[in-house]
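Q&A log
Question type: sequence-to-structure
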Amino acid sequence: MVTVVGEFGAPGAPGDDSVVEYNYTHNNAGSGYLAYTSTASSRVWGPNTYRYNISENDDWANAQGGLFDVVPSAPKNALSIYGNTCFTNKDQSANKKAGASACFLFGYASGTWASGSQIKDNICHMANKGTYGKTGQMYYNPYGQTGMTLSNNLYYGTNTGGWRWSGTTYADFAAWKAAGLESGAVWGDPLFTTPGGGGTCSWSPTSGTGPQPCPQAYTLKPGSPALGTGTAVSGNGGVDYYGATIPSPPNIGADAA
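Response status: OK
Response body:
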């Protein structure tokens, strides 16, 4: 499953005032989540929200370059991305594209995101490997899109490609923090129960709404640096991916409680 809110919206939903939540995407050739921000027939995309979703081994073919893509342009209405969990450990070294998929990929041009846009409380655990042996970048933002508030996201990976922001690549977490582009950022192994072990859910819901009980692979074990280190988000829906009431401060990721 690929979850998209595009110019005409996700299936059954408009292209604005949509909430994409409680989804589990895995093993897509392209990105698991796509905010397609284009304006069509004078209809401006957004505001839209992506929250409490889990991505496992998406963009395995490096078809789009990111597990979560915001393209082609900076959103003209607010975009909120918070409380999501992204994990990949795919070996992408045989792909035709150089490098490995990023956690977040932004746009094909420069621009400023609309006021109120935010990227908070997300986990990027990058264990994929590209053609040069490095894992994917946390952000691939080569055109330097700005305007979104970055806060309390957790990052982890070995031999990572760093954070690409405009013309600068911040090679390690210390350099990223020193740049001052994000407040409250966290580095460390999130201690998932079974990273990479989400598999295919066999749960049959009585309705199409979440939250859902699987996969349990991305619940957090005791000692996780994600526990209690998130930041409160107004209008957060009240419950996380697993149906638990979200405290303040929340955990980082889809297991927010």
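Response note: The chain is about 5% helix and 25% strand.
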